[in-house]
Structure formats: structure tokens, C-alpha cells
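#help-structures
NK: newbie question, is this the right format to request a structure? protein is UDP-3-O-(3-hydroxymyristoyl)glucosamine N-acyltransferase
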Amino acid sequence: MKVLTKISEIRDLISDRNPEILRLPPEFVKKVDIDPDYSYTIQKEFSVEGKATFENKDAIVKVIPVQNGMSGFSWNGTRYDLDSQKCIKGNHNIQLGEVKVIEHPLAWMLAFGVYADFTLSESSFPTFDYCDQVYMDQSKGNWKKLEKRKKISVSSPFALVWDKGYCILEPETQETKGLLIDHQVEYPGTTVGKSRILTELTPENFSYFGDARTTAFRNKKDAESFYQIGLAGGLKDYPFTLENVLLLDEEKIYNIRNKFKDPRSDYNYEFICHELIDIISWLRFVEEKYEGKFFGKMTTFLFDHHKQIDIAQFSCNPEELEKHGIRIGN
């Protein structure tokens, strides 16, 4: 990856972004019972059950109040602090030590300012039918307010650029009251195409779109085959069903949930909403490292989980940031 810090280089990088911008419909919000200026943990532990994503076995995830001030993920007797340096580039997920597919709970923690400890009966988190809804349901009315969150941001804009794709972080401005996200994807066909969305992350809008399903984009032939497999009950060796995965090809979404359909445009937001869940998760490492709430703008393109590990490790390394004249803090 390359690091860009010159404003002119960053402007050139984004010069060909799609000028047509999607925004979440105004009704895509739910009321929440938290104050975004504060951090939280849960009062009482709870458990959620599902099929472990890689093991395809019945699995239990126990969520308990944070124990030592830093969130952690445990499996097989080993606990891993939420430290980006412990991340491993595994099979298309964010893996922390031996614990896999942590991106979805991380996104929930980021959106709500949650500190918690997770213990898994298998090494990978389940792929739930309603993604982060399982955590939101169990934590409602189960909050314990912690300290007021200090504001953290990046001192000056920078971009990380890979062979394909990039991520740009910019400081807070008067327009950004929290995390402003400008995300673009690129897929063949018309179902997704070069969709670009601009939105602020809030607990209220995450409460609405946090149940968007993991996506499976396939060519038409493979998607038709997957759909028939889904109708027959799903894959034998992988917990894929038509309930926990959004299946689509270049021209068609096979298992639409009308909740995500915008009545004004007929555009279905579920794909791009799950993209938001995936791409924001790495920032939770930054918030735990610098002990605050991140304010600023993030602009992304072709930003997969391995790139997210790269930028998390870069951003959580003050010495490396200093080499490029960058600082993250309050």
C-alpha cells in the first residue's frame, strides 16, 4: 500500500468517483435509548446462538460486561484484547488471533459506543439471519453508561492506496458531527453497479440498517444454482441459506427484503447497507486504541477486510503515523 498525504494527490485519487450519490431514506431510523456522547457496556450478560460461519456447527456467543476497560474476544481459553496488531488475514474476514468474523459485532460496538467481552464456543462468529439485530435486541434496556467519550480525529487528511481500492481519512469539519462515510462499490450489471452512498453513522440509522444481510454477488449461472440450493435448505458444509445471505447477480436480487426498498426510487438499499456494516468495523480498533469517539470523514472504494486490517494497524501505530506527519488523538 501507498500512503498519500498531499491534498492534490488525494483529490486526483477521488476525481473519477460516481457523481450520482445515494443517501439513506429519512425513514431509515429507529429510536435508541443511549446518549452518543457516552460509552456503554451491558448490565447483564446475554447469549446468542447460530451456526458458526466456518465450522458450520451450532455455536453460542456469550456477551458480558467489559472487564478491564478494553473489549476482548475469547475462544478456547484464550482472550484477545481488541488490538489491531493481533489481527490475521484469514478467509475474507477480520480475524483477531484465532477468533474469526468479528467485523459485524465490531460495527455494532462502533455505532453504539459499546465496550464488551465476547466468548465463543467455536472459533468463528455465526452469520445471523439479521446480522447485528441479535445484539441490538439483547442490549435494548440493558445498558450501563460509562464515561463521557472524548473526541478523537486525524490531524490531517491521508489516504492508503492499494493496487485496487483506497481509504481516505479526513479531520472533522463543521459538516461532520460524527463519522461521515462516502463509500463506493463497483460490480458488473445494474443491481449494484457503481453505487455510491454518503451518510453519517448514527445509532439511530444503524438501528435500522444493522440487520442487513451478508451479501453473495455471483454471475447469473452461479446465482441461479445458489438459489436452488437455498430453496432446498442451503449448503451442506457451509451455513448459507436464503435467510442469512442476500443473493444477487448482475440483473436480479433473488431474496429481497422489502424493508430496504425505497418507495420513491425502487432502489433496494440492503446490499449497500451491509457494505456500510463491513467497512466501518475497523474504526473500532482506533477508538479502543486512542480511547475516544472518532469524528471525521472516511472515503472508501474497493475496501475489503484485508485492507481494513492494513489501515487499522497503520492507524493504531503512532510511530508509523508520525513518519508521515499524521497524528490521531483529541
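mod (FA): yep, format's fine, and the C-alpha cells are attached above. The longest helix spans residues 220-231.
NK: thank you!
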